[in-house]
C-alpha cells in the first residue's frame, strides 16, 4: 500500500509518541481511585455490556469490514488491532461533555484496560488469521508470518507501568494527581495533533493515494461502535446518561496503545508504516466523529441531565427518601420512575456496605 522507502515517522516523532503514551497513561492512572474499582463491581451488568461491545462487537465488525472491503493484509491487521483495544481517557473526556455518566465511563476504561492484557492478543490472533496467511503466501519460501502475541502482551504491560505510577501519585497526593490528569489530556491532544499534521504535511500525497476502502473502514469502525453501544445498552435497560457513556466508550478506542504495539511489536518498516497510517486515519476521524456525536448527545440529553442533576441536589439536601415532584408528563418515560437514573440505588448500596 505504501512505498517501503517512505519514512512515515521520523526519530523525533517516535520520541514524542513515546512521551505522549507515557503522559496519557500516567494521567489515566492519576485519575483512578479505589472507588472506580468498587463502582465496577457494583455495576456488573453495564460492565458486561461494555465488555460485549468492546471485545465482542468491535473486533468482529473490524474483521467484517476488512474482509468485505478487501483491505490489504497490513491495513486489515491494523484495523482489527484498533478494534481489539480497550477504551481510554479520551472517551472519559468526551463522556463528560456529552452529559454521560463519567463514573461508569472510567469504570469501563479501567476494566477494559486490565482485560486487554488477555483479550487483545487473543482476539488479534483469532481474527487476523486469514490476513497473516496471505502475508505468509506473499513471503514464499515456506516462511510463516504470525502475530507476535508475546511482544503485544509485553507492550501492554509496558504501557500499564505509568498507569500504576499514576495510581500511586493519586494515593499520595490528590492535588498533584489532578494536575497530572489535566496535563495528560491536554499534552496528549497536542502531540496527537502534531503527529497528524506533520504526517499529512510530509506525506500529503498519501491522502489521495490511500485506497477508499481504508477510509471507509477507518471511519465506519468508530461510528458502528457508537451505534452498537448505544442501542445494546438501551435494550438492556440502561438509563440515558449510561447509554451515552457506553456508546462513547465503545466507539473510541485507545489509539496511543495501538501506536505503542505497532512500534514495539512490528519492526518491519514497510508493514509498520502501513499499520501506522491506518491508526492515524482512525485517530483523525474518531476525533471528528466523536465531536459530532458529543454535540448531538449534549443537545438531546439536556432535559434528562438537568433532571438528574436536580434530583442529586435534592437528595443531598433532603436525604435519599425525598421524592421530587415534577409536573405530570414532564419527565420522559424512560426516567419517570427513577429521575436519578440509578444514582439513588447506588447510594443505598454504598450505605449498606
From the structure above, extract its key features.
single chain; 353 residues; mainly alpha; Na+/H+ antiporter like fold; 17 helices; globular
Structure description:
- By secondary structure, the protein is mostly helical.
- It has 2 domains: 11-298, Na+/H+ antiporter like fold (Up-down Bundle); 307-352, no CATH class.
- The protein is 79% helix and 0% strand.
- It has 17 helices and no strands.
- The longest helix is centred in the last third of the chain and has 32 residues, at 269-300.
Q: What's the structural blueprint in terms of helices and strands?
A:
Blueprint: H1 11-30, H2 34-42, H3 44-68, H4 73-83, H5 89-97, H6 102-127, H7 129-139, H8 149-172, H9 174-202, H10 205-209, H11 212-235, H12 240-251, H13 255-265, H14 269-300, H15 302-318, H16 333-336, H17 343-352
Main sheet characteristics: none
The mean pLDDT is 81
What gyration radius follows from the Cα positions, in whole Å? 21 Å
Overall shape: it is globular
Summarize it:
The chain is mainly α.
